Amino acid sequence: MIEVRALSKRYGAVVAADRVSFKVGAGEVVGLLGPNGAGKTTILRMLAGILTPTEGDAFIGGVDVRADPFAAKQRLGFLSGDTALYQRLTPREVLRYFGRLHGLDGRAIEARSAQLIGELRMTDFADRRCATLSAGQKQRTNIARAFLHDPPALILDEPTSALDIVTGRFLLEAIKRARAAGKAVLFSTHVMGEAEYLCDRVLLLYRGRIIDDGTIDEVCARAQVRTLTEAFFSHLDGEEHL
Amino acid sequence: MRGAVVLTIFIKELRDTLRDRRALFAAVVMPILVHPLIFLLMGNVMASHEAARKTLKPELAVWGPVPAKIVAALERELGARVVARRAERPRDVEAEARLAIDTGGAHLILAAGAGADARFAGDESATIDLYYDELKSASDAAHDRVADALKKLRASELQARLARHGLPAEFDKPLELTPHNLTDKKRRAGDIGGGILAFVLLFVIIVSGMLPAIDLTAGEKERGTLQTLLCAPVRPLEIVAGKYLTVVAFSIIGASANLAAMSFALGRQLAVARDLLEFSLSAGTYLKVFGAMVPMALTISALLLALSVFARSFREAQSYLTPVFLLLLLPTAAAMMPGMSLDRSTAFLPIVNLALLVRALLNGHATAELYALVLTANLAYATMAILLAARIFETEQVLLGGERPWRDVFGRADRARVTPSPRSALLFCAVLFVATYYGMLWAAPHARGVAALVALVQLCLLVPAIAWVALARSSFRATFSLRLPTARGALGGVLIASGTWAVGTVVALAELRLFPGARAYSESLEGLFAGGGFALIAVGAVLPAIAEEACFRGVVLSGFANTGSRALAVGGSALAFGLFHFNPYHIVVAGTLGLVLAFATLESGSILIAFFAHLINNALQLARPHFPSLEWTGNGWAIGAGCAAALIGLWVIRGSRRSDAIKESARASRP
Predict the structure, then answer these.
(1) pLDDT band at B505, cuts 50/70/90?
(2) Does B396 touch chain A (CB under 8 A)?
(3) Phi, psi dihedral angles at B59 (to 5 degrees)
(4) How far apart, in whole angstroms, are the C-alpha atoms of residue B475 and residue B420?
């Protein structure tokens, strides 16, 4: 559902992503883990069509992101921790706007919006301007926006950053529901607990390269440790010594 | 580009901007409150000042033998009062007069040299010097009133002298000059008002459009909402077009609010000055002002948007736009210079043409042709600016903050396309319009004869068309549809080629009936081509069939076809072809022919049909003056048969493309 082949991004001499390859299948949640500056956001932005890869290919739902970014974006829901909302619109208006941009008709937008507003408990603030919402309420609106057109693939870039534990839980539950619905979810996070709770597989990223790829048990076994956090540090230590 | 998506973005952005109290207050509320206040305050102050001047009783200092009759007349007529008197004119009269006025000793000094009173009484000329200070209101008013009264006294004294000597009243008028200025008060007022209005319009359009332009681009980057939009399946040109329409709408709303508030206040003041300027704020004036506002808003909004997109923050955008604001005022000031007027040589000058259009609309010198030229020029400039903004919108270095954004924006695309992209075709149109227009202006005085001029203009088209395809590394065969038609296509093509001239004739005849101005244009064209001879028929038929077809059924049509909409491709290329003829009457005829030729090319996959139809049409039109006996354009049967042939041909030719052409066009629509 999400496939990346030898994807690279260079800014002059700086290599932000170095021949990265992986796949995320339908009904699978894959965690992209790495320290700051590892290249997580760059890779996710290339998949979302915001950045153009220097080399390599990326596919969303079988569509080449470079050749047909328009069709690829139709198949993708993108959410990041720093995604902002239009301050002078209400959450309901935001959903209508993005519904139309995704080509949904009026009835479908209203039905889907009502469903998401109910599921994400947004009824109390759905008609208030976004400028007056709390960080958690804004992120719930953003989740609804990313899920609105029912895309087969979801890319979530540190979506729980700056969220309280209650809103964070909303998001994690939403991801679980998406997996159950057969969607491919690529999820970057700093929080190892979230990865352990959600991910079927993890990709450890360091300096633009994938240094390990596997289930949490496999990654821990290879590092000869018991927890993902220990495995993460073990890999980082190994890389620093190289 | 999808109209529905552009409309969605436009409605959202307009709603968002209208909810921005800061922008709304600056563009709409402020002018509605402030303009009437300023005008009313200024008007009242000026009216009371004028009333005080008219009723001022001058305080005079009389130095030397000023004739008593004169002083008495001033006392009687103006209620003047002599506050100081000297028997002789002082030696340094100017210094003394300045001192007297500065210390409030008098408003005005009347000074006369020795013997002035005697000369006045003896039917000779007496010189009276009037000393006043223009910068002191009372002194200036006293001078105006006294000078007017003395002119009247001089006239009555002259009549009395002539009567005393038994001479007729016309004795001192051996020659009467009667100037008849064809610029009446109304036009003069329009010229002055138009010059001022050009400044005002430019100012209010910039002020109204600046905040939304920054807010929708740099502001969105700063707030972090741009990333959300870029993740949606929306093309950069659609985003820019939606935002551009919002800035245009807001510029027009803001400018209209400003002008409405000004005209409300000005209407009250004009009543006072009606004897000086016959300037009325009629519905016609409003319509003219709106007519000037639209092209101005189109260009300025595009410019504001293109520059704001580059900025990373609100503050940075302001620093880009402030100098531009000042730079835009320079050409507007140039347009107000004496001797500058809207004509064919100034109609394409950026910004200058807008200021001149405002003047020309209000002083009555604007024609439909000039208006169409200015509109076409501004559409071309606005298109260039919007395409630049769209290019910037897809440049990640600019959007996400890079070190060398300019290199990315102006660099060539990595991959070649089979045929030009829709944006490339649109940019080609804009560049072609400007280049060809200036090419024509340059060639007109240099070319020897009409045939040479036509040849030069057509070369100005053919060379850029070929260069454009070569630079884009596109396929010449696919872009110019260099293929033979199928048998069915050829049959339809023969019918279309034999009847296209008749379609053009029907439209031209309808236009002549509906618009009286079209006749003058038609006659001027006939007059131009009548003396061309057979060389002109050969050149004017063959070269446009090659060069114009290469441009409009080649680069433009193939580029617009990549939008995926055949209607847009045919309609858009026909509109471009019509506009290219740079005349409002020619736009309709050429546009209609453009529809037929574009449809034939797209459906047959071959440019040959358009080539022959174009060639036959031009040859028949150019040959008409040489074969008056044939009169095919006046023959209803011939026209009817021609139209029927063209219509049947269009029906026959539908879907007659070769399979390789279909595959090629499918490949072309991909980057």
Answers:
(1) confident
(2) yes
(3) -100, 120
(4) 9
Phi/psi region, residue B631 (left: phi>0; alpha: psi -120 to 50; beta: rest), is left
Residue A117's φ and ψ, nearest 5 degrees, are -60, -40
Q: What pLDDT score does B62 carry?
A: 94
Domain B56-172 top-level CATH class:
alpha beta
Six-digit token pair at A78?
Answer: 């993108």
Q: From the CA of B444, how many Å to the nearest CA of chain A?
A: 47
Q: What's the confidence (pLDDT) of residue B148?
A: 93
Q: How far is CA A226 from CA A221, B199, B394, in A?
A: 8, 75, 46
Q: Which of B16-30, B334-348, B604-618 has the highest mean pLDDT?
A: B604-618
Q: What share of chain A is helix, strand, coil (3-state, %, to 5)?
A: 40, 25, 35
Host H or E run for residue B333: helix B314-335
Of A196, A222, A79, the C-alpha closest to A140 is A79
The one-letter code for the residue type at B175 is L
pLDDT tier, B532 (very low <50, low <70, confident <90, very high otherwise): low
Phi, psi of B129 (to 5 degrees): -95, 135
**Angle at which helices B185-216 and B283-310 cross, to 10°:** 30
Contacts of B400 in chain A (CB under 8 A): 50-51
CATH number of A20-241: 3.40.50.300
Calculate the CA dihedral of residues B224, B230, B231, B232 and round it to 10 degrees. 120
Check if A100 contacts B (Cβ < 8 Å): yes
Neighbouring residues of B534: CB distance < 8 A, sequence distance ≥ 6: B626
**Model confidence pLDDT, tens digit, residues B253-310:** 888 887 777 777 666 665 555 554 555 556 666 777 777 788 888 888 888 888 888 8
| Structure-token match 């033979």, residue found | B484
Contact list in A for residue B225 (CB cut-off 8 A) is 84-86
Chain B residue numbers touching A103 (CB-CB < 8 A):
233
Q: What angle do CA B396, B399, B401 make, to 5 degrees?
A: 90
Checking if the pLDDT of A91 tops 90, the result is yes
From the list A11, A74, A88, which residue is nearest B16 (CB)? Answer: A88
Distances from the Cα of B320 to the Cαs of B310, B317, B393, in angstroms?
9, 5, 17
Contact between chains at B16 and A86 (C-beta distance less than 8 A):
yes
ipTM of the complex: 0.85
Alpha helices in B515-635 (DSSP H): 516-530, 533-548, 557-561, 566-580, 584-604, 608-623
Cβ distance B227 to A157 under 8 Å? no
| B246 to A119, B30, B212: CA distances (angstroms) | 35, 20, 8
Which pLDDT score is estimated for B76?
Answer: 92
HEC secondary structure over B545-576: HHHHHHHHHHHHHHHHHCCCCHHHHHHHHHHH
What local confidence, expressed as pLDDT, does residue B666 receive? 61
Give the whole-angstrom CA distance, residue B587 versus residue B593. Answer: 10
The CA distance from B19 to A196, in Å, is 44
Residue B146 · residue B128 · CB < 8 Å: no
Query: What are the residue boundaries of the structural domains of chain A, listed by start?
Result: 20-241
Residue B668: pLDDT band (50, 70, 90) is low
Which residues are within 8 A (CB) of B91 and not within 5 positions of it... i.e. 6 or more apart? none
Cite the residue boundaries of each domain of chain B with CATH code 3.40.1710. 56-172
Q: What confidence tier does B616 reach under pLDDT thresholds 50, 70, 90?
A: confident
- For the cut 80, the answer to whether the pLDDT of residue B193 exceeds it is no
Q: Which residue has the tokens 């307009």?
A: B14
Angle among Cα B475, B477, B478 to the nearest 5 degrees reads 70
Q: How many CB atoms lie within 10 A of CB A21?
A: 13
